[in-house]
Amino acid sequence: MSVFKNLPTPPAAPKKTITDTRHGISRSDDYAWLRADNWQAMFKDPSILAPEIRTHLEAENAYMNAAMADTKELQKVLFGEMKGRIKEDDSSVPVKDGPYAYGTLFVTGGEQPHYFREARDGGDRKLLLNGDKENEGKSYFRLSGLDHSTDHSRGIWGYDDKGSEYFTLKVRDLETGEDLADVLENTGGGGVWAPDGKSFFYTLQDENHRPSKIFHHIVGTPQSQDRLVYEEEDAGFFMGVGGSLLDDYIFIDIHDHETSEYRIIPTSDLTAEPKLVAERETGIEYEMTEGGDVFYILTNDGDAKDFKIMETPADKPGKENWREVVAHKPGTLILNHMAYARHLIWLERKDGLPRIIIRDRHSGEEHSIAFEEEAYSLGLQGAAEYDTDVIRFSYSSMTTPSQLYDYNMVTRERTLLKTQEVPSGHNPADYVTRRVFAPAWDGEQVPVTLLYRKDTPLDGSAPCLLYGYGAYGIAIPAGFNTNCLSLADRGFVYAIAHIRGGKDKGFSWYEDGKMEKKTNTFRDFIAAADYLNEQKFTSYAKIIAEGGSAGGMLMGAVANMAPEKFAGIIAAVPFVDVLNTMLDDTLPLTPPEWPEWGNPIDSKEEYEQIAAYSPYDNVGEKPYPPILALGGLTDPRVTYWEPAKWVAKLRDKTTGDAPILLKTNMDAGHGGASGRFQRLEEVAFEYSFAIKVADRM
Fold first, then answer.
1. Which of 549, 614, 674, 688 does the annotation list as catalytic?
2. In 3-state terms, the chain is what percent helix, strand and coil (to 5)?
3. pLDDT, tens digit, for every residue of 310-343?
4. pTM score
C-alpha cells in the first residue's frame, strides 16, 4: 500500500514540442520552454524570471508540500536531533602564522562563521569578521572566506548573496574592523595578496560563469582600473590563482578535468609577464608547490596514471628540468602534496584507504601516518608556515567523531588538539561500520561502506539509504557524519557505494567511469543494491537511493535502468538533462565538461554515447518508484530547468501511481541553503522522505 495518500492532482507542464537535429539524428523536447531565455540575467536578479515558469515551479512546490505535509513534525524532530549533535558555540583550533593564530567560530543560534585571530601562543581573541552580522536581512548568504595579507594589516573577504556563485570582494582593515572603499564584483570569491599588502590578484567570472581572467587590484583604486594579468581564451578551461608559503611566487593554475597548465609570477616583480612552466598537453595534469629553491610537481606525465612527484629548479621550472623524487606506484594514488623547509609530504590512497607519507628532504627517510579501522577518512591540512616541523591532519570514521592532530614530523609525536563534540551524546560502541565489496557485472569489486546500529537486524527487513556519486574522480570519504545517525537510530543501514567515476580505487577507477565507460558508474551502483539485497543487509523494497549533482545523474540513470530495485529515489540538483546541456555551449560550464562526458556537438559517436544513458532522454513508460528531485533557482552548475523538465517527463511517462515530487529552492543555488542550520532543515526534509517511503514514520 502506498504511503502517499489523498494527494491533489499533480501539476502537468504544458508540452511545447521543439525538434533538434544533430548528426542526422532528430530528437523532440516537450519541455524546453522551462529554460528561461534570460537565464544569465535571472541568476543575478531572480525577480525577472518569466511568470509562466515561476507559476509552474510554485505549483510544483505546492504539490510537493501537500505530499510531504504529514512529515512536518518528523522534519522538526529530525532537525532537532541533527542540531543537537552540533556544538553551537564551536570554534576551530587556530592556525599559527607569524605573530598571530587565525581561526573561525560559531555562536549559539548563529548560521554563519565568525573569523578571529589571537596572539600566536594564545590570548584574547580579536573578531575580524562577523558572518551573522553581514548576513542580516538576506535570504541567502555565503561567505567565501577571509584571506589576510602577509603583514597581517588587511584582509580580503567575499560573499555571494544570491546563490549564483558570483562573489563580491571587499577589503577590510583588520585593526579597525572597517571595510575600505574597494568593492570588486563578479569574482571567484578570493584573492592572493602581494607581500607588501598593498595589492592582490583575483579571478573574474565571465557571463558563462567561468573564471577566465586574472586581475591585479591595487587597494584604493576602482575595479575598472585593475590590470588584466592573464586571460584564458579557451572556453573549456578554468583558472585559479594562488600564492606560495614563502610569498615569493603567484601561481596561475589553468585546467579542465584532465589537462593542466601553470604560469608563475615572481612577487619581486608584480608586473612581470606570467611565465609558462610546462605547456598544456591533453590528458597531462600537474600541480605545483614551493620548496625553497625548487618546486615539487605532482604529475601523471609519462604514463604515471596514479601520479608521481618531480622536482625542478625554481628559476628553471620547465619540463626539461623535471627530476623524479617519488616514483609512480600503480594502484597507489597520490592525492596531493605539500613541501616545507625540511620535509616533503603527500596524501595517498591504496585499496580505498588513505595514509600520509612524510619524507625528510635531506636524508630521504620516509614514514607514514595510518590508522587501523576498516574504513576511515584522513584530511591533510599542513601548515600556514614554511619553516616548520609541525603539520596538522584530521581523522574520522563513520563511527568515530572527527579528531584534529598536530604532528611533529621529526619526533613523530601526535598531539590531539580537538575531538568533535556531540552535545546530545554519541557512543561509538552502539554502531558498526564495515567495508564490504559488491561484485560488479565485469568482475570488479565495488567497495561499499556501511554504518548501522549493532542491534539492527540483518535479515532483509532493515531499510537502507544508499548514497552514490561517481564522477570527476571525486572519492567519497568514509568520515563521521552526525546527520546519518538519525537514520541509523531508526533502524536504517546507511551505505556509501564507492562506484567507478571516483578515484576510490585509483585513477583507473575514475577512467572506467567516464566518457564511453560512463555506464559502469550506474551498473556499479545497481550492483551495490544487488549485494545489499542478497546479503540481507536490506531488501530491494527497502532501498532508498540518494545522490546529488552528478550523483543526481546517477539517480536518473538507475531509475531508468532498474526502477524495481529501489523503494524511492532522492535526486538533489540532479544533472539529468545531459545531452541537451552538453549540446549547449552557451551554458555555464558546458565546454569544461566535455572531457568528462564527451562533446556531442563535434562527435556523433559521443552524441550517441550520451544519448544512450542521459536520464531525461531515456525516461520510459514504466512504473517509477517515488522520486524527490531538488533544485535551486540560481544554480549555475545544474540549472533549475534540468530537474523541472525531468520531473515533468517522468510524471507524463510513468505507468505507476507513485508520486514524482519537485522542490525548487527559490532563494538558493547549487549548494542549497547557506546557513549551517538552514542546511540541516534541508537534510531533515530529504531524510523525512526516505523515512516516509520506508514506512518508518
1. 549
2. 25, 35, 40
3. 999 999 999 999 999 999 999 999 999 999 999 9
4. 0.89
